[in-house]
Design brief:
Number of domains: 1
CATH class: Mainly Alpha
Order of helices and strands: HHHHHHHHH
CATH architecture: Up-down Bundle
Strand content: under 5%
Distance between the termini: 35 Å
């Protein structure tokens, strides 16, 4: 893609099309397995997920369309990352399908207070995600280094080297509880080893191609969770 960027109208069209696909897909994954629309946990989760998402898209369209364009890219360049993305999609599919079946067959009961707390943490995870976007305008969806890109070491990047993945982990792992399912927690936890592999692969590439990243790794010790790893 080089230094050429999509016109604003094309970017808006792309965002609109993605939302037209993403939102109905979520509706199908939640309510078809549940066999009912009387699934308040899913409605609450959709509210917590979609409203901040739409607001952040509007913000980026207005304030940083180039970053939004980077977030629209889907095709990884390295074979190992392509495999990780495919596995991530599979895990996501399983995690979002199980709660509906759990609702239909009443496999588990998650108290209302736990559901609400989980939604709060999902929202917190998205808040971390958005904070990273504001801090690092090179935060592409795929792993790449662009001309002129600099190492970001302030804000959340001063605590961990991959704060965006921290936010995503919170959202992903707590989603089953927000959807009222204990059983979906089992596959949701598989995001952790998947992220570990992705982070190690990403850091190898960044250390090789992004000037100053090796020094940053010496300065900021933790990859994902402050004080742990």
């Amino acid at each position: 893609m080089g230094n050429e960027h999509l016109p604003q109208s094309e970017l808006i069209k792309m965002v609109f099309v993605r939302l037209l696909i993403f939102i109905p897909l979520l509706l199908v994954m939640f309510f078809l397995p549940a066999g009912t629309f009387a699934y308040w946990e899913a409605w609450l989760y959709l509210t917590v997920l979609i409203i901040p998402m739409v607001l952040s898209l509007i913000y980026l369209l207005k304030n940083d369309p180039e970053l939004l364009e980077r977030r629209m890219r889907m095709r990884e360049k390295e074979a190992s990352q392509k495999l990780i993305v495919k596995l991530g999609f599979l895990y996501c599919l399983i995690v979002f399908l199980i709660p509906g079946f759990d609702k239909r067959y009443e496999w588990s009961y998650v108290p209302v207070v736990i559901v609400i707390v989980a939604d709060i943490f999902v929202l917190l995870g998205y808040g971390i995600f958005f904070l990273v976007l504001r801090q690092n305008r090179y935060a592409s969806r795929i792993i790449e280094v662009e001309p002129g890109q600099e190492v970001i070491s302030g804000g959340p990047y001063a605590m961990v080297r991959h704060p965006m993945y921290l936010g995503v982990s919170l959202m992903y792992i707590l989603s089953p509880l927000a959807l009222g399912s204990y059983w979906a927690m089992i596959p949701a936890l598989l995001i952790i080893p998947l992220l570990v592999v992705r982070i190690r692969n990403e850091e190898t590439m960044l250390g090789r191609e992004l000037k100053g990243y090796k020094e940053y790794m010496q300065k900021t010790k933790y990859h994902l969770i402050p004080g742990i790893w």
